[in-house]
Each structure stands twice: as C-alpha cells, then as structure tokens.
Amino acid sequence: MFPAQFTYERARSEDEALAVLAKYGADARILAGGQSLIPAMRYRLARPGVLVDINAITALEYLEERDGFLSVGATARDYALEASALVRSHYELLASASRVVADPVVRQTGTVVGSLCHNDPSGDWPVAALAARAQIVVRGPGATRLVSADDFFVDSFTTAVNEGEMAIEVRFPKPPPLTYGSYHKIERKVGDFATVCAGVQLTFDATGRVATAGIAIGAVGAKALRVVDGEMMMTGNVPTDELIAEVMQAAKRIADPVADNRGSVDYKREMAGVLVGRALRDACRLSGPQGAKTL
Ligand SMILES: Cc1cc2nc3c(=O)[nH]c(=O)nc-3n(C[C@H](O)[C@H](O)[C@H](O)COP(=O)(O)OP(=O)(O)OC[C@H]3O[C@@H](n4cnc5c(N)ncnc54)[C@H](O)[C@@H]3O)c2cc1C
Predict the structure, then answer these.
(1) Rounded CA gap, 130 and 201, in Å?
(2) What strands, in cross-sheet order, belong to the sheet with 135-139?
(3) Separation CA 147–CA 33 (nearest Å)
(4) Does any ligand 1 atom lie closer than 6 A to the CB of residue 279?
(5) Beta bridge pairs of residue 186
(6) Which of 45-59, 93-107, 129-143, 276-290 is predicted with the least confidence, judged by mean pLDDT?
(7) Residue nearest to atom 43 of ligand 1 (CA)
(8) Dihedral sign computed on CA atoms, order 214, 228, 244, 251
(9) Residue 245 belongs to what H/E stretch?
(10) 74 CB under 6 A from ligand 1?
(11) Between the CA of residue 295 and those of 37, 66, 126, 240, 271, what are the distances in Å?
C-alpha cells in the first residue's frame, strides 16, 4: 500500500529541523532511517502530514568517545557500532547487540537513535540502552535536556520526546575496567524482531565481586524492562550458579509478555529467565579467573 499524502521537508541542520517541527507541530514526524516509519506509513498505522528528513544532517552522523561517554549521533547507522573497533574492544554489550539488530541491510540504514525514539516493545536498542545506563540528548526550541534511559521509554512506541523536540544523540557511559557485557536474543529467523531478548553489563571489583550490574529484558512487556531486583542481587556478590538462578527467577517475575505467533506467555516468560542466565554467564566467563569462580 502507498502511504497517505504528506509534505516532505529536508533539514540540513538541527536548527532547520527544529524550525520545521515548530512550524507544523503535532503533524510533523522526524524521518531518520525510515526502517520503521515508512512501513508504518505504508500500512497507514502512521499518517504524518509532514516528514522532516534529517538524513542530510551529516553533523549528527558521529560515533565517538567524548567526556567519558560513547556518543552516537542521530544520523549514525546501526552498522556504525557493529563496524567499530572501539565498540568491539570496550563496549561488549553494545557490540553483542549490534550484531543481531534486524539484518545487515536494515542495519545499514536504520539509526540507533531512531530505534530508541520508535521504542518498539520488541526493539533491541532500548534493552541495551537500559542495561548500559544510557542517556539521550533531547533538543527542543528553547532548551536541550538529558534524559536517562529509565525515563526515556514511557510506554509502547512512546518516549519522553515531546512535540517540537528531536533526539540529538544517545550517550553510553564508558565502561570502567573489569566490565563485561553480553546480549542474547531468540528470533524465529535471522533478521526477525525478538521473541525475547536480554542484555547484561557487569562491572567487577578486584576481588571478583560485582560492583555494578545492568540487566534488561525485551519483548516481554509494553516496553523494555530493567530487572532491578536482579541487579541488586548481583551487586556486592561473587556470581555463583545459585545466584544466577535467583536472578533468572527475578527476570521471570517481572516479565509480562503477550501470546502471539512468536510464542505463548509461559514460553516467553521462561525464555526471559533463560536469556538473562545466558547473558550473565557470558559476562562472568569473560571476566576471567577473578569473576564467577564457581561457574
Ligand atoms: C525487516 C526489518 C526488520 C527489523 N528487525 C528489527 C530487529 O530485529 N530489532 C530491532 O530493534 N529493530 C528492528 N527493525 C527496526 C529497525 O531497527 C529500525 O531501523 C529502527 O527501529 C528505527 O530506526 P530508523 O532510523 O529507521 O527510524 P525511523 O523509521 O526513521 O523512525 C522511527 C520513529 O522514530 C522517530 N524518530 C527517529 N529519529 C528521531 C529523532 N532523532 N528524534 C525524534 N524522533 C525520531 C520517527 O519520527 C519515527 O516515529 C527492523 C526493521 C525492518 C524493516
């Protein structure tokens, strides 16, 4: 099906984009990679009157470490993370997630920030952003604000970006030494959205105890969920099989999936626990002899 009629505006700078958003109000939508918005328009699930194409804002196509963060601009593609030696060597959770978002063709066009703004309950980047404690830079006509991932994802397909605003960048804190991460996803076939997914990032202290833990799950609720109880259980402890089993139960307790053609409620809830367990074990194994001595 063809999309409903719309006006197309190409912005070449943040200021131009914000001016168009201010002019058209709620009728305007940002077009980033278009990998979610264009299909939604073709199915008439979205009918924006105006598309504000930000793809010509090359100043936002960056992936760089700055002030203790990995900053990813609004027009940087998913593929930039997958291809980055810096991400591979220092941001294990992000590297792991970047290899399983959609398929290689979609990753060449889709943007990380666009995925966060779309906030699909089955999306991969929101899960990674929660576990990695990301922050999103949101700019409006009067001010720029920094929103934590916890506050950014409001509900299915709804974020903290208000009318007239755009997300400029996502910032992932630079993991301290002894930080390890992993992302696991069950999909019906390569390139599919997750049936269930889980992301984990653990920082160990010199004695092998977990100093900080980030654990999140996706496709099992209206939005990506942080497994806060599991994070608290891990923190201050040396990981063991028993501890990981408890954290898996914590993930299952907060999972609230719906049955669909990808699986039943019981199956998805069970898999939320299983994937958290797998990601935790990965992170512990990667931590070497100091972490997870009994695993
Ligand atoms: C075949 C296929 C398979 C896919 N599989 C997966 C998958 O397995 N996992 C997964 O996570 N995703 C998957 N996706 C979605 C894909 O990752 C999208 O690229 C992503 O969700 C949206 O990014 P985008 O840049 O294309 O955004 P767009 O489609 O351009 O925009 C999406 C929404 O975000 C808004 N938006 C975008 N950028 C901004 C901004 N800077 N500020 C404010 N609002 C903004 C838009 O207005 C729109 O409402 C798949 C897509 C396809 C087509």
Answers:
(1) 10
(2) 63-66, 69-73, 166-173, 135-139, 144-148
(3) 22
(4) no
(5) 196
(6) 276-290
(7) 166
(8) negative
(9) helix 241-254
(10) yes
(11) 44, 36, 29, 6, 20
- Shortest-distance Cα residue to atom 2 of ligand 1: 102
Confidence of residue 293 (pLDDT cuts 50, 70, 90): very low
Beta strands in the chain, from DSSP E residues, in sequence order: 7-10, 28-31, 50-53, 63-66, 69-73, 135-139, 144-148, 153-155, 158-159, 166-173, 179-186, 196-204, 210-218, 225-226
Q: To test the ligand 1 pocket, which listed residue (51, 106, 145) has its Cβ within 8 A of the most ligand atoms?
A: 106
CA distances from 71 to 119, 136, 165 (A): 19, 10, 19
Number of the ligand 1 atom closest to the C-alpha atom of 100: 8
pTM of the entire predicted model: 0.96
Kindly report the length of the chain.
295
Amino acid at 221: G
Distance 162 CA to ligand 1 centre (A): 18
161 lines ligand 1 (CB under 6 A): yes
Closest residue by Cα to residue 104 from 79, 81, 128, 83: 79
Token pair listed for 215: 């654990």
Closest protein CA for atom 11 of ligand 1: 123
Is the separation of the CB atoms in 124 and 209 below 8 Å? Answer: no
Rounded to the nearest whole angstrom, what is the distance from the C-alpha of residue 48 to the centroid of ligand 1? 16
Whether residue 119 has its Cβ less than 6 Å from ligand 1: no
Nearest CA to ligand 1 atom 21: 115
HSE at residue 231, side-chain half, CA atoms within 13 A, is 20
Write b or e for each residue in 35-68: b if 16 or more Cβ atoms lie within 10 A of its Cβ, otherwise e. Answer: bbbeebbeeeebebebbbbbbebeebbebeeeee
| pLDDT level of residue 294 (50, 70, 90 thresholds) | very low
Residue having the nearest C-alpha atom to atom 52 of ligand 1: 35
137 lines ligand 1 (CB under 6 A): no
